[in-house]
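// run 5 | inverse folding | seed 20
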C-alpha cells in the first residue's frame, strides 16, 4: 500500500476498496488510533455513520502531510465534502529526543524497517514526555459540512486512515512531522556517527558483549547487525534481463524420430523450459520491481509450488500437467495433458483456473479435502467471528475445511497454510473465484462479487 506525493513531506494514497465487513485494524497501533477517535468524538452515532461510510468505500484518495490528513468523502446521495483531521506536529526539539531514543536501540530501527511500531519506542517516548500515538482530543476535525465536532465524513476519514497506519506506521510519523526518507536518513546519520565514535574508542557499542579482561573484539547482537544493514552501500546494478525467453529449436527434420518421441510435443516442452528459466531470471534479478503472480512463481521455480508442499519438493505428474495446461497450449496438447493426468476436460478446466489463482497451493485446495485439527478449527472460527460486525455476519455451514454461505452460491475454503480461498457454485461444481486472502471476509466478498458478475453476465466458465 505505497503512497505517492510531492516529495517526502506528503503522501497520497489511492482510494481503498470497501472494507466489506472486515475489521478496520489488526495491529495494536491501529487500534490505538481508533481509540483516540472514539474517545474524542462526542456523538457515537456520528462514528457509526462514519464507519458505514468508510466500509462502503465513500472515502476518496487520502493525502497525508505533517499535521494534517485530507480526503473527499461522499454521502449516499453523491454530495462530496472535503474533510480534514489535524494532528499536532512535534517540535524540532521533540524530534531530536525521539530520534535519539530510536537510534539508542537497534530493535527500534529493525521494527520500523519491518513496518511495525515498536511498543518499547512508544513507551520510551512517553517516559520522555512524547506521546507518539494520539490521545483524547488529539484528532481535531474540520469538514466542509461545517459540523463543529466529528461528523460522519471526518470519522470515515479516520477509519480509512486506520487501515493505512495498520500497513505502515511511517504514515503516523509523517503526521507528526517527518517523512520516511528524512527519518531514515537522520537515523542513518546518527547510527554512523555513533559507529565512528565506537571505532575511536569514545563510546562502547550498545548491547555489545565484551570479554572479561577487555581482550578480543566486542560482539554485536544479531538484532543490531540487522538494523544497521541499511547503512551498507548499495549493491552494484544487476545485469540486464532479456526481453523474453529464447525460441526452441525446430525438430521437424527429414530424419524420422525414434519410437515414442513426438517432435511437436518435445518442442512444446522445450519452449516451456525456456519460459520457466526466463521467469526465474526475472524473479531472481527483480527486473520488474514486482513479485510474479503466485501461479507464475510456481512455474518459475522448482522450489516454489505453494505452501502445502515442503521446500524443494518437486511437482507431481498431475500437478505439472495442470501447470503446462494453464499456459493455454493447443487444444490437442491440453487434451493429452488432461488424459495423461487422469482428468476429464471439465476437471482440467477447473484445475487450470485454480492454478492461475495460486499455483499448486490453489490446486490442492480444489482437489484435496482435509480435516483441520481442533486447534486449527478454533483459530479459524475465531477469525470468522472477528471478520464481521455481529449484525453483518453471514450464516455459514462448515464441512471439513469448507464453509458455505447459506442462501448464496459462495463458499470459503481454508488452506493448510491458513489462507482462505473464495469459491463460487458453477452449475453442479464449485469453481475457484479468486486468489487467497488472510482475511476470510475479503475472500467471501470476492466469491459473492463473482456470483453477482456470473448472474449478470452468464455462467462462470471452467467446469460447469
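// decoded
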Amino acid at each position: 500500500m505505497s503512497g505517492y506525493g510531492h516529495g517526502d513531506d506528503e503522501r497520497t494514497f489511492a482510494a481503498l476498496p470497501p472494507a466489506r465487513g472486515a475489521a478496520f485494524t489488526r495491529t495494536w497501533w491501529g487500534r490505538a488510533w481508533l481509540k483516540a477517535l472514539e474517545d474524542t468524538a462526542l456523538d457515537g452515532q456520528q462514528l457509526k455513520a462514519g464507519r458505514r461510510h468508510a466500509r462502503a468505500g465513500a472515502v476518496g484518495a487520502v493525502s497525508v502531510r505533517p499535521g494534517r490528513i485530507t480526503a473527499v468523502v461522499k454521502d449516499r446521495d453523491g454530495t462530496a465534502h472535503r474533510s480534514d483531521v489535524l494532528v499536532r506536529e512535534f517540535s524540532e526539539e521533540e524530534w531530536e529526543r525521539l530520534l535519539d531514543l530510536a537510534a539508542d536501540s537497534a530493535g527500534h530501527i529493525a521494527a520500523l524497517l519491518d513496518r511495525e511500531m515498536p511498543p518499547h519506542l512508544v513507551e520510551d517516548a512517553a517516559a520522555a514526555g512524547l506521546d507518539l500515538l494520539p490521545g483524547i482530543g488529539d484528532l481535531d476535525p474540520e469538514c466542509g459540512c461545517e459540523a463543529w465536532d466529528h461528523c460522519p465524513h471526518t470519522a470515515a476519514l479516520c477509519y480509512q486512515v486506520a487501515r493505512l497506519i495498520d500497513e505502515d506506521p511511517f504514515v503516523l510519523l509523517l503526521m507528526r512531522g517527518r517523512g520516511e526518507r528524512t527519518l531514515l536518513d537522520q537515523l542513518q546519520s546518527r547510527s554512523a556517527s555513533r559507529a565512528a565514535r565506537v571505532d575511536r574508542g569514545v563510546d562502547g557499542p550498545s548491547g555489545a558483549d565484551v570479554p572479561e579482561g577487555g581482550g578480543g573484539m566486542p560482539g554485536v547482537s544479531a538484532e543490531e547487525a540487522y538494523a544497521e544493514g541499511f547503512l551498507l552501500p548499495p549493491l552494484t546494478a544487476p545485469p540486464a534481463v532479456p526481453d523474453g525467453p529464447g525460441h526452441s529449436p525446430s525438430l521437424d527434420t527429414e530424419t524420422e524420430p525414434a519410437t515414442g518421441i513426438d517432435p511437436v510435443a518435445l518442442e512444446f516442452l522445450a519452449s516451456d523450459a525456456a519460459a520457466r528459466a526466463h521467469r526465474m531470471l526475472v524473479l531472481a534479478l527483480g527486473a520488474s520491481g514486482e513479485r510474479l503472480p503466485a501461479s507464475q512463481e510456481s512455474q518459475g521455480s522448482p522450489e516454489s509450488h505453494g505452501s502445502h508442499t515442503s521446500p524443494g519438493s518437486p511437482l507431481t505428474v498431475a500437478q505439472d500437467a495442470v501447470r503446462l495446461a494453464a499456459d493455454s497450449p493447443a487444444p490437442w496438447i491440453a487434451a493429452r495433458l488432461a488424459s495423461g493426468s487422469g482428468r476429464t476436460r471439465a476437471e482440467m478446466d477447473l484445475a487450470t483456473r485454480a492454478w492461475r489463482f495460486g499455483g499448486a497451493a490453489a490446486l490442492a485446495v480444489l482437489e484435496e479435502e482435509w480435516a483441520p485439527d481442533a486447534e486449527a478449527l478454533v483459530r479459524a472460527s475465531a477469525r470468522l467471528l472477528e471478520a464481521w460486525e455481529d449484525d453483518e455476519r453471514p450464516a455459514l455451514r462448515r464441512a471439513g475445511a469448507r464453509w458455505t454461505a447459506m442462501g448464496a452460491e459462495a463458499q470459503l475454503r481454508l488452506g493448510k497454510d491458513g489462507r482462505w480461498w473464495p469459491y463460487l457454485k458453477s452449475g453442479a461444481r464449485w469453481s475457484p473465484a479468486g486468489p487467497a486472502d488472510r482475511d476470510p471476509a475479503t475472500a467471501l466478498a470476492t466469491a459473492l462479487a463473482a456470483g453477482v458478475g456470473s448472474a449478470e453476465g452468464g455462467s462462470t466458465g471452467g467446469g460447469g
